Amino acid sequence: MELRQLRYFVTVVEEANFTRAAARLHLAQPGLSAQIRQLERELGQQLLDRGARTVTPTEVGTAVLAHARDALAATERIAATVDEFAGLLRGQVRVGLISGAATEAFDVAGVLADFHDDHPQVGISLTEDTSERMLAALGRGDLDLALIGLTGAPMDSGIGMDVVLETAVVAAVAVADRTYGAEIALDTLREQPLICLPPGTGLRGVFELSCAAAGFTPNIAFEAAAPPLLLQLAARGLGIAVVPELTPAQAAAFGVRVVRIVRPEMHGRLALVWRADRPGTPAAKVLLGQLRIALGGKTTPSEA
């Protein structure tokens, strides 16, 4: 039995599919299947039920899964301990970012460049995804830290969090649209075609929670992961964009006018998150410390 076989087994269970697991592990599917079969032969038990569409652990596989995860975590702790005694930083740090997080206001690229200059033996893996999926990846151990948008929903108590930005959620309409004044009540948006970030993003979560509290489901006509595209669609008169607050210059550049959403006002928050209940690698700890200083966040109770 080899550690890599245990890692393969855990990944197949988490993905519930050999094809997705092979892609995540950067392996050919036949090779992955062969390694799992070899592990089953060595243990003398079938670990997985292989269905037509999904793969699930057998009763024995479920029992083995917990021990496999413990073994993999133990090897990571051993490597981290050796590195700490040697005073070396090496390995890889996995960082998640929401779309648009690396801006002039947040010089994430600069922090990563400085970290790389100081620790050239450490690789940095960047993932851009929705906040919801990155939180799930953080929980699985696939990410070491992430910069996400908060929805306001409760979050795992094992997540550490620094809020690094809070901004109002506003509406953006075409400059020529004079239907609304400087403000618009949330309830007024009930029947309007809206342009918004996709599900799983922090701003979308905040907006949907507020709409639910007001007793309606928003009419989302268009979705896009990039805020600039939302503004471009609004400028063409395709709906009302729900976006983070803009300066007058930013709004003018996109050909839109900002209308404040009131009763209630909503605020989006950007946060740096990490697993506080698990020992991170030395490299991840150092990068986390540098990002916390650079982003100037404030530690808050966990919420998503």
Characterization of this structure:
- This is Putative transcriptional regulator LysR family protein.
- It comes from Nocardia brasiliensis (strain ATCC 700358 / HUJEG-1).
- InterPro entries: LysR_HTH_N (IPR000847), LysR_subst-bd (IPR005119), WH-like_DNA-bd_sf (IPR036388), WH_DNA-bd_sf (IPR036390).
- Belongs to the LysR transcriptional regulatory family.
- Residues 1-58 form the HTH lysR-type domain.
- The mean pLDDT is 89.
- The chain is 42% helix and 25% strand.
- Helix 1 packs across helix 4 (59-86) and helix 5 packs antiparallel against helix 10 (282-295).
- It has three domains: 3-79, Orthogonal Bundle (Arc Repressor Mutant, subunit A), CATH 1.10.10.10; 88-164 and 269-297, Periplasmic binding protein-like II (D-Maltodextrin-Binding Protein, domain 2, 3-Layer(aba) Sandwich); 165-268, D-Maltodextrin-Binding Protein, domain 2 (3-Layer(aba) Sandwich).
- The strands form two sheets. Strands 3, 4, 5, 6, 7, 8, 9, 10, 11, 12 and 13 form an eleven-stranded mixed beta sheet that branches. It has a two-stranded antiparallel ribbon with strand order 1-2.
- Strand 1 (48-50) and strand 2 form a beta hairpin.
- It is an alpha/beta fold and 304 residues long.
- It starts with a helix and ends in a 5-residue tail after the last strand.
- It is built from ten helices and 13 strands.
